[in-house]
């Protein structure tokens, strides 16, 4: 079956077809976009997928995981260290639910905890809309922009450390990697825009079908804060981090640490996944230190993901591709078992 490569998911669809053939399982993929499909097992079980969302987690747990505010509430209640936050609403939603938690209340809270703060759309993934704001002007501008894509906006206190994702499947760590925000290195000649275009080209050659958007407003905001423009030229060897979030889907890169995760963080990720009712879970951690050692300073659970997409991770190399195929092979086998 030929799958059109229109969206980022066909890479996974092709992988699912490959795994189905290997396991002698029928995989049907909708042909126009290659985003959704059905997996039919010889025992009569049918499972479905849409992008990276698979029939592996229960619906209630998946919905809670998708909601940053609700998942934080449950994780905090169970004693996991989550980053301080508070939720507010778009003007239209405030009117509808008769709430006073509007943009002005959000700004009062931001001032109370101190700038800069992160603004996050509550129900979006892949780093969409996540912005670190430093001024009142940017706060109101970004809050208004996020209100157009989500009725619930989180105001969150920034924390420092190293950003990791640990992927758990049925009480086993399948993969772990450190996520590094979009960064470019100057050559003393090329403009920032040229370096970004080159970086984007490198990502595509590596198989990353979805990369960052050069027109992303957060890039321009970050450059202005550093008194730079897209025409600026960096010194040779000069490093410039362009975004504050490290999602792979917004241009972040990764370093595999699967074999280095300390038992403390292994046990934490596995227990958290179980406590949140998830068989397959991406646990995002911010650690003031290294994931390979027992924590001596602060660490936090950033959020959890019930459908952790690994297509970007697979682009890191052959070893990572093998890990991703192994992961989804195990997921296929797990989905084929009767309840």
CATH class of the largest domain: Alpha Beta
- Please give the order of strands in the largest beta sheet: 13-10-9-14-15
Fraction of helical residues: 25-40%
Low-confidence stretches: 1-9
pLDDT averaged over residues: 90
What is the number of beta strands? 15
CATH topology of the largest domain: D-amino Acid Aminotransferase, Chain A, domain 1
The major pleated sheet works out as: 5 strands, antiparallel
Which H/E pattern describes the elements?
Answer: HEEEEHHEHHEEHEEEEHHEEHEEHH
For the CA atoms, what is the radius of gyration? 21 Å
C-alpha end-to-end distance: 31 Å
Shape: globular
User: How much beta, percentage-wise?
Assistant: 15-25%
- How many distinct domains? 4
Q: What class would the helix/strand composition place it in?
A: alpha+beta
CATH architecture of the largest domain: 2-Layer Sandwich
Number of discrete helical segments: 11
CATH superfamily of the largest domain, by name, is: ATP-grasp fold, B domain
Task: Give me some keywords for this one.
four-stranded antiparallel sheet; 35% helix; 339 residues; Dna Ligase, domain 1; alpha+beta; five-stranded antiparallel sheet; D-amino Acid Aminotransferase, Chain A, domain 1; globular; 4 domains
What would a concise description of this structure say?
By secondary structure, the chain is α+β, with helices and mostly antiparallel strands. It has helices at 10-23, 59-66, 68-77, 91-97, 103-113, 136-147, 192-205, 217-225, 263-275, 311-314, 318-335; strands at residues 26-29, 36-40, 46-50, 53-54, 85-89, 117-121, 131-133, 152-156, 162-169, 172-180, 183-185, 239-241, 253-256, 280-287, 299-305. β1 (26-29) and β2 form a beta hairpin.
């Amino acid at each position: 079956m030929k799958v059109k490569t229109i969206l980022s998911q066909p890479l996974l669809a092709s992988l699912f077809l490959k795994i189905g053939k290997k396991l002698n399982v029928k995989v049907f993929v909708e042909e126009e976009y290659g985003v959704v499909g059905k997996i039919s097992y010889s025992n009569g079980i049918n499972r479905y997928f849409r992008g990276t969302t698979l029939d592996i987690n229960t619906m209630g747990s998946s919905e809670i995981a998708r909601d940053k505010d609700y998942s934080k509430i449950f994780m905090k209640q169970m004693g996991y260290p989550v980053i301080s936050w508070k939720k507010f609403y778009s003007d239209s939603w405030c009117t509808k639910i008769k709430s006073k938690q509007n943009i002005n209340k959000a700004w009062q809270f931001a001032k109370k905890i101190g700038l800069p703060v992160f603004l996050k759309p509550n129900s979006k993934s892949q780093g969409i809309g996540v912005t670190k704001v430093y001024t009142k002007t940017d706060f109101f501008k970004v809050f208004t922009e996020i209100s157009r894509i989500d009725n619930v906006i989180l105001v969150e206190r920034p924390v420092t450390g190293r950003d990791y994702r640990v992927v758990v499947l049925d009480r086993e760590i399948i993969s772990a990697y450190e996520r590094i925000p979009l960064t470019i290195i100057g050559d003393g000649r090329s403009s920032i825009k040229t370096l970004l275009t080159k970086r984007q080209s490198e990502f595509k050659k590596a198989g990353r079908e979805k990369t960052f958007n050069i027109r992303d407003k957060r890039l321009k905001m970050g450059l202005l804060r550093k008194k730079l423009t897209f025409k600026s030229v960096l010194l040779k060897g000069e490093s410039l981090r362009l975004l504050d979030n490290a999602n792979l889907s917004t241009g972040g890169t990764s370093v595999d640490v699967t074999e280095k995760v300390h038992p403390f963080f292994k046990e934490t990720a596995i227990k958290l996944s179980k406590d949140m009712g998830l068989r397959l879970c991406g646990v995002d951690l911010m650690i003031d230190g290294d994931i390979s050692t027992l924590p001596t300073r602060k660490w936090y659970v950033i959020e959890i993901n019930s459908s952790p997409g690994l297509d970007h991770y697979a682009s890191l190399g052959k070893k990572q591709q093998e890990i991703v195929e192994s992961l989804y092979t195990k997921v296929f086998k797990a989905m084929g078992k009767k309840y």
